[in-house]
Specification:
This protein is mainly α. The chain folds into 2 domains: 134 residues, no CATH class; 44 residues, no CATH class. It is 81% helix and 0% strand. The chain is built from 7 helices and no strands. The longest helix has 41 residues. It is globular, with a radius of gyration of 19 Å. The termini are far apart.
Length: 187
Amino acid sequence: MTILRLFIAFLEVGAFAFGGGYAALPLIERVIVHRYEWLTMTEMTDVVAISQVTLGPIAINAATFVGMRVAGLPGAVIASFATVIPQAVLLFIIGRFFFREKRTATIDHAFNALRPGVAGLIGAATVSIFIASIFISKSPLIVDPVALIAFVVVFILRAKRINILPLVFLGAGIGVLGHLVEYLAGT
């Protein structure tokens, strides 16, 4: 039964996640964290962080991680496969029309209409991840100063068009160093 639930959950994610991995995050969060409670929001944030380090789309990496956690290797395979099925079918259908010599105005209008929605989904995912990353445990009043410093530094540097990979390591370095200082100060 767990394998079937994994398949259906990630089939839904694959079918309704438009705009790439970041745009899919609110849907993944709703299904994985809130509906099935397979992960906490903090764990979901960790999945996003791990997905940035590993190759592949966020949705597939999340599916593989959650599937492995919930049902082992068969769960990872089923969840990953279920995520890809709807998008592959849709890609074949859209690709047939999109790559014709004469594109239709309807397809162009559809893509133009999707862009603001995708931007909104990415924004919603950003807010959820920010909240889960900055606040200590579930308290909306206690801010982790190290996480906040890492966020501000990386955000400012990314706004200056600094390459993402060094920023990932910088953010991790700030986190490790800051929490090491806190640990040593507390002992």
